[in-house]
Amino acid sequence: MENKIIAVNYKLYVSSATEAPELEEETKPGQPFEFCSGLGFTLEKFEKELINLSEGDKFDFTIKATDAYGEYDEANKQDLDKSIFIVDGKLHEGVVEGEIIPLMSEDGRRFQGVVDSINENTVTIDFNHPLAGYDLNFVGDVVVSHVASNEELSAYINPSCGGCGGSCNCSGDCSDDSSCNCGGCH
After folding, report:
1. Where are the alpha helices (DSSP H) in 22-126?
2. Which residue in 81, 90, 126, 185 has a CA-CA distance of 20 to 30 Å to 105?
3. Does position 73 have pLDDT exceeding 50, yes or no?
C-alpha cells in the first residue's frame, strides 16, 4: 500500500466504562493534524479509518481502549526514590502531581510518566499512557488526502532535513544556505 499524506480536523472525545464521553482535544482552526500513513506515527486503527477517505469526507468513529492505548494497568505505577528528583536541595519544580515529566533509564532510554503522588520518601510515577483505559471517539473531516511524493516521504523519514532526504548540511532550513544542493529544503 502506498504512503499517503493525510490531514484532518477533528474533535476527540474519550469515555470509559464508568465515565461519559468528554471532549479531550481538538485541532485548531486552520491547523489540521497531518501525518504520513504507513510509518507508525499514529494509532493503527486511526489510520485504517482514514486511509480510504477523500478530501472533504466527514468521519465519526470510535477506537476501543484495547486497540488504542490499552487498558489501564495499576502495575504500571512505580514508587521512585524522591532523591532522584532533588535539585539544589529542593524537589525539582516540574515534579507536581498530575504533570507529565521526562525520565531516562540507566541505559539512556527516554520516556515519560505522570506524577501520581509525592510522598515523604518517594514519588509515585504512573507509566500508563494518559488515555489508557479510554475509548477514543474521533469526529471530523478530511482536509488533505493524497499519495505521498518522494519529497514528502523523505520529510517524514528524515524530519531534521526538511525533505531533502538527508543530502544537505543545512539543519533543515537551506533558504539562506548556499551549501545545500538538494533542491528540496525550504
Report:
1. 44-50
2. 90
3. yes
